[in-house]
Amino acid sequence: MFQLPFPVRDANAGSGADSLGNLPEWDLSDLYAGEDAPELDRDLAWLEGECSAFAADYEGKLAELDAAGLLDCVLRNEKINSIAGRIMSFAGLRYYQLTTDADRAKFMSDMQEKITIFTTPLVFFTLELNRIEDDVLAGHLTTNTDLARYKPVFDRIRAMKPYQLSDELEKFLHDLGVVGDAWERLFDETIAGLTFTIDGQELNIEGTLNFLTEQDRSKREAAARELARVFNDNIKTFARVHNTQAKEKEILDRWRGMPSPQMGRHLSNHVEPEVVEALREAVVAAYPKLSHRYYELKRKWLGLDRMQVWDRNAPLPMEDTHTVAWEDAEKTVMDAYNAFDPRMGEIAAPFFSKGWIDAGVKPGKAPGAFAHPTVTDVHPYVMLNYLGKPRDVMTLAHELGHGVHQVLAAEQGEMLSSTPLTLAETASVFGEMLTFRKMLDAAETKEARKVLLAGKVEDMINTVVRQIAFYDFECKLHSARAEGELTPDDINALWMSVQAESLGEAFDFMEGYETFWAYIPHFVHSPFYVYAYAFGDGLVNALYSVYASGAEGFEDKYFDMLKAGGSKHHKDLLAPFGLDASDPKFWDKGLSMISDMIDELEAMED
């Protein structure tokens, strides 16, 4: 299946749209001029013909190929992936700009169905590749250096070998994929179509979530209660989507013999289950010294006896809540990128000048933010819902980091450029850290430094603590669904079971908060995606500590890491920096950076 990642950045938008300046919009013509472009018809016709020809030339014959023949086969498969990816990138990006538009939704669905039909005959490729004897494949890789480049791809494909079904079943499941996609579209379109009313103003979900970062507590409360009301009104739909998706996954995992619901994600991330479990255990053990301690500080700053869920992302009382114009946001991020290395600024600049960013909040536009790499012979596109809060500047830095990473990794080609999710967050979180440190160095007063530190701590808690709590929720959800249908109340209870543990004693939970699982797109589009955020944050904190120590040649090593894309395992990528994510102590390093910032905030109270 050729799909776009759904907007997965859990960003809080800002306000003051009138003073934001000229917000950029996508120019998708680098993909296709329009849905009626002759180049699109040409590529669809080529794809249909080439998929049939590929199957005719290679099905049942992979084991007989010599090294040169297998390389030709791989290169043809890579070209098919590129053309299919280009078509779906165009269809998907247009759809995310306006998910409520029936014509765009139909176009994307039609393209998905065509490509699924065209590519079904190709299912044999991975199945037969896995049937090649280990010593035969090793011999091919030894004799042909061009083929040996693709060893990481073969390793990832062959990791699925124990869970592979018959050729006929695999083709059936490939064909059936479009049905599962329909549930994801139902979720997307339901979320995009929700309307919320606050003070007589009708808002979409992004505009409503924005109120949770307002200085006025009554506005935050009104937004939280309105979110709860609307989620509750639609809870049966959301519960049906989650039940169906989780059950579909349980059936697939059972047929494949997967040992756990999480195993498929670990395999696709090319990360060992024990490494993820070490991360999870380290974060959960750190809840008291991270989120619990920080929110107790924040409770005092806000002058509250108890905090409510609408206070979690509240600005501090001394915080300047001015709107950051787009031009200023661009300058802030670009200055930070250029200060690290002019090469990074050079790669980032075209995003702003060539229509590679779609920044504005518009009715029907998908919520959140993302960077999509499209295909390696075009360029990435970044989507934001920019409303001018300082956190939106950090979101820009984050997504632009993804974009830089994707540009550099494109040199690897279509099959090797895609970075496992655990490493895909490296450049984005590092970009945020560079921007934050630049702003922190420029802070002129103790209060300004305090606000910046608190904001960064909150972002890191949202990235580490919140996402591991999300991961625990998903683990519980999939485990419970395996035992039977879940009512909305069942799912609500699972959600609340992880909230108090992760947030701490400072919070009370309003009636209705139990439904807030409903709007998180990760759970529907990418089960167990969320631990990648915590993985990436911990990795970057450790990486940044190496950079801050003045390690010689860090910048070159960093660019080499990004250029590697998916061609190396995390152990190999981190080794030049003296880091090892499989070492349990590795995660404590990253968590200590957050704890140290909270130490500094506590010291400011003395």
Automatic annotation (TrEMBL):
Limits of the Peptidase M3A/M3B catalytic domain: 214-591
Domain Oligopeptidase F N-terminal positions: 128-196
GO biological process, one term: peptide metabolic process
PANTHER family: OLIGOENDOPEPTIDASE F (PTHR11804:SF5), PROTEASE M3 THIMET OLIGOPEPTIDASE-RELATED (PTHR11804)
Protein name per UniProt: Oligoendopeptidase F
Pfam name, any one: Peptidase_M3
Top-level taxon of the source organism: Bacteria
